[in-house]
Write a structure and sequence with these properties.
Length: 243
């Protein structure tokens, strides 16, 4: 039975109006007297989470793991232009810096044309043409001999950047010139291996006569291909109506 203290409780008085005394006493005892009182919030039981929450947590962890393993996204062409990644600083635009690169390029052309030391090969248009068309011209010393723009004729320098539509060259005046390929003809010379040795002998002997070199010309309008694409591109003979 309920004590006098329980009978004076307002919750017991309200329950006694809706239930019989025995049922009101049990409800008051279970719901009011023995009700747990949480003094501070407790962390939820991880085992009590529903399946949807567990799947979401696993998906987020997997996504984070893949994000860490993925490579960084490469820069776009516009971002590279804004950052100036391929721009040559002003202090590096000097002709003498790229002279060793030109000498390396000459040795590279000797290997392509089969003009190594101790070897003699006949260079013809049929044999050397496809090789020169797919070669790399970074380090070549080019000279504009013909062009629709008269101001480009006579421009000569070492190629530091070979793009799809232009040649960027460092001249002997330490200036960077960008020459479009279209409607321009470029000339370059390759000294023969024995001529290179003879050149050193003539310089020591103070002789003004220069050894003979192999002279080639490039038609820029037919050369509008990136250097990386020319290595696998097959060139075909076509009409050149602009000549």
């Amino acid at each position: 039975m309920a004590s006098e203290k329980d009978l004076s409780h307002i919750a017991y008085q309200i329950l006694s109006q809706a239930h019989i005394p025995a049922e009101a006493h049990n409800i008051f005892k279970d719901k009011v007297l023995h009700k747990p009182l949480n003094l501070r919030p407790t962390s939820p039981d991880p085992n009590s989470q529903d399946a949807r929450a567990r799947r979401r947590l696993q998906r987020l962890r997997k996504k984070e793991h893949l994000r860490r393993r993925q490579k960084p996204k490469p820069l776009t062409a516009k971002e590279k232009r804004v950052l100036g990644i391929y721009d040559i600083p002003k202090e590096d635009q000097r002709y003498e810096i790229y002279e060793p690169l030109h000498r390396m390029w000459v040795g590279y052309m000797w290997e392509i044309l089969g003009l190594k030391d101790g070897e003699h090969a006949y260079v013809t248009a049929q044999s050397a043409g496809p090789k020169l068309a797919s070669a790399d011209y970074h380090g070549a010393e080019l000279e504009v001999v013909r062009s629709r723009c008269v101001g480009r004729v006579g421009c000569k320098g070492i190629v530091v950047k070979d793009t799809k539509f232009t040649f960027e060259m460092i001249t002997k005046c330490n200036t960077l010139r960008t020459v479009p390929k279209r409607h321009s003809i470029f000339r370059f010379e390759i000294p023969q291996p024995e001529s290179a040795e003879l050149l050193g002998i003539l310089i020591e002997a103070s002789v003004t006569e220069e050894p003979k070199c192999l002279v080639f010309e490039l038609h820029g309008s037919q050369f509008e291909v990136r250097a990386t694409d020319r290595a696998t591109k097959k060139f075909k003979q076509r009409r050149m109506d602009d000549l």
